[in-house]
Amino acid sequence: MDNTSGSTANAFDASYTSPGIEYKPRLGSEAICEALLDEGVDYIFGYPGGTIMPFYDALPDYPLRHVLTRHEQAAAHAADGYARATGRVGVCVATSGPGATNLVTGLATAKTDSVPLVALTGQVGRPVMGKDSFQETDVMAMAMPFTKHSFLVEDPDELYETMRRAFEIARSGRPGPVLVDVPKDVQLAACKHDTYRRLRAVEGQAESPAVAAAAMLLKKAKRPVIIAGHGVTLSGAERELMLVAERVGAPIVTTLLGLSAVPEDHPLYIGWPGMHGQASVNRAVDKADLVFGVGMRFDDRITGNAEKWAPNAKIVHIDIDPSELGKVKRPTVGIPADAKSALRGILRHLEDARDELAEWRAEIEESQRPERARVEGAKDEYGPIRIMEAIKATAGEDVRLVTDVGQHQMWAAQFFRFTKRNSHITSGGHGTMGFALPAAMGVALAYPDEPVWVVAGDGGFQMNIQEFATIRDLGLNIKVAILNNGYLGMVRQWQQFFHNRRYSETPMTGPDYEQFAKAYGVAGRTVHPGDDVEEAVKWAQSQEGLTVVDFHIDPEANVYPMIPSGMSINEIIEEHSV
């Protein structure tokens, strides 16, 4: 059991029974609970319904804590947030039909970002399957592209084993979501026996000619750039990554999901590249003679036009998923292995390495001076930079920031200084609006004694706004900063740049968030240009429980720089050039 969440147990006292009871599964529903218990599950996020009712009937007899979200999609995102924050497998539950279909966006979000989840869904009984029964959906077929594996369990004696296998599949290799679909009558059926066969663990290759070759390329490079992705955090390889970089003096950048894998105050950290990454970082990658990618996918938001990206660089690509090697950029050296294992192997070949890259780092440092000057000059202006600075200054080094998807997400990535390991939680590859508020529930349950802030736009925030009730009922100390521009901001920005300011269906309204918060019995405040940003953030931090600050910002504020989709660094749009 994870003792990090112990202080929230009072909210779940009704779910506990005597820990001295020895559980013997008799029904399929009890076998599911037994498997969850044996996996050390702390929290289950879900929403009951007809076909999953037997599971919910068994649940109160087990010391498993269930969080009743107000929407199944929120259950998946909350389990996702918990998994990202802890590194453990998140669990979500829904009934058949619309309950199961509502989970799918959350499963797709987790699949793209390699987050381990187990989703349990009820299904109509076996006698009526395939007959278009009430709330019957072939959720296995629907979820297949968005899961590592899916199970339909039609034998109650296979339930325990299948649940345990689902957890192993979710966390092994490249992590991801696994679906277990269980007909209602299987949950009600008697179990005759249970067995469990552990999957054979397949370790990433720690030593190979490729490892030695990667180390040699790193030692010989004159202008290397190390790119750290989400796989570094998933592997727990942050220390190894920094040791490799320090051994040769190579500058480090991160992907969006790699943010907080390297402390931003580390002297070798220079920022993040891609569509909205710093221009200086993109230019450094463009000039690099070696790109050393660890636990990242070379996705289009990083590379833009992949053929023109890092045109003079050799490429080392380390990824636990062999299918990623060569999918976008053909590596000079590809290593299909766990990041920590591979980096440890590379370190053994760098014992005689020397830092001869001072001139390269100085060139990058010089290119970043104008950018840093512009940021410094904007810190006193009302807007995103000042808001991010105020949250960091007030919440402190232990703050965990959960962002939604849109302009605010990019501003947070650009201007919030992440110095704590794994303190940045966001939806990257799938870009799921509505992710942040429910995901923050999972983060706050995992770390109840640490500050958790949500940064969201007024568009995405309204997609799962119903979770105010869940957060209030749990008494979670989550603070929310809404960057409210009255638009679907990122879509509006693209319309401005590429569609001649034809703002078709992007202006949008929302509630008075201060009054909305009041209706739920939580604190809220509205902040306008000219108001004291720092005082508003300090006020929010001082409040107990869920607190909302609605920052009204410039409706046409844009995220700069921007490399248009499919373009290269040569087509970058910078603020001073608009």
| Helical stretch tally | 22
DSSP strand (E) fraction? 5-15%
Instruction: Determine the N-to-C terminus distance.
Output: 54 Å
Mean pLDDT: 91
Side by side, the strands of the main sheet go 2-1-3-4-6-5
The level of helicity is 25-40%
User: In one word, what is the shape?
Assistant: globular
The main pleated sheet reads as: 6 strands, parallel
Radius of gyration: 24 Å
User: Regions with pLDDT < 50 over 5+ consecutive residues?
Assistant: 1-23, 201-205
Q: Tally of extended strands?
A: 18
| Structural class designation | alpha/beta
Describe the model.
The protein is α/β, with parallel strands linked by helices and 578 residues long. The protein is built from 22 helices and 18 strands. It has helices at 28-38, 53-58, 72-86, 98-112, 139-143, 159-171, 184-188, 209-220, 230-235, 238-248, 279-287, 300-303, 339-348, 358-378, 384-395, 407-415, 436-446, 458-461, 468-474, 489-498, 513-519, 533-542; strands at 43-46, 65-68, 90-94, 117-123, 149-152, 177-183, 224-228, 252-254, 269-271, 290-294, 314-318, 333-335, 400-403, 424-425, 452-457, 478-484, 523-527, 547-552. It has a six-stranded parallel β-sheet with strand order 2-1-3-4-6-5, with helices on both faces. Strands 9-8-7-10-11-12 form a six-stranded parallel β-sheet, with helices on both faces. The protein has a six-stranded parallel β-sheet with strand order 14-13-15-16-18-17, with helices on both faces. It is globular and about 70 Å long. The protein starts with 27 loop residues before the first helix and ends in a 26-residue tail after the last strand. The model is unreliable at 1-23 and 201-205 (pLDDT under 50). One of its GO terms (cellular component) is acetolactate synthase complex. InterPro entries: Acetolactate_synth_lsu, AHAS_TPP, DHS-like_NAD/FAD-binding_dom, THDP-binding, Thiamin_PyroP_enz_cen_dom, Thiamin_PyroP_enz_TPP-bd_dom, TPP-bd_CS, TPP_enz. Its cofactor is thiamine diphosphate; Mg(2+). It catalyses: 2 pyruvate + H(+) = (2S)-2-acetolactate + CO2. Residues 343-370 form a coiled coil.
